[in-house]
Sequence to fold (314 residues):
Amino acid sequence: MKLSVPGRATGAVVAAVTLLTTGAITGAAPAPTAAAAAPDIPVANVKAHLAQLQSIATANGGNRAHGRTGYKASVDHVKAKLDAAGFTTTLQQFTSSGRTGYNLIADWPSGDANQVVMAGSHLDSVTAGPGINDNGSGSAAILETALAVSRAQYQPTKHLRFAWWGAEELGMVGSKYYVNGLSSANRAKISDYLNFDMIGSPNPGYFVYDDDPTIEKTFKDYFAGVGIATEPETEGDGRSDHSPFKNVGIPVGGLFSGADYIKTAAQAAKWGGTSGQAFDRCYHASCDTASNIDDTALNRNADALAYAVWTLSS
Fold:
């Protein structure tokens, strides 16, 4: 998630688009009845993706930041998985702060192309660390959901599109570039944009974006079905990749498990964890590693992600 700093420079975005086209955890809560069509997302698979992102960061100076070798290696890793699973992938190139950045877009070849359900997350970290919760967690969960679509050979009514954004930490640069490049007709085709930025925080909360009512209800219905109370998400308002979509009138929603705000006693009583501490004490720090993840929160949010994708696209 982008750090909210007044006056922070985001850099000019100047470039052309490059198209590269190719072709359950033990003890987890049962899914609600309404989610029967959606698969359980194995948290072990999501964790395996996080381990890969950690390895990439370790091999590339300790981070996966915009314009650095660790970011491009992260994009290449995710793209290879999607290409092998039968997605049509597009690598979108832009320039910000004098460095080249990339968005990765993956389309599932099914469903009504005039009605698009889109799920996205930012793939870049800050330069201080590997960014495994922020935002390997969202990126890995979306990747595993996309692979679940492929395994099921899911035939949705609406078209499914997944996205991994670059340079979010510089001010949602990649997602702004994507949205600004869409024609008004193509913007109108996106019926839902779902954003997942930090969903495995080690002292987690369960926050649902209170933007589009239908998307919000979809997530709240899932969590109600597994007996988890939620709260409206406010910490990330204007600080993540849903903002460019919302600003042009596209319905948005998403999930969040908390960053540097402090968990209250009431929240700890409701969700467990430690009151008086941040939801993620390693937010934007070198300690945001593979050990900076709560597996239960990651599992629940990944399952909720898949539930929303299946529900909204069917």
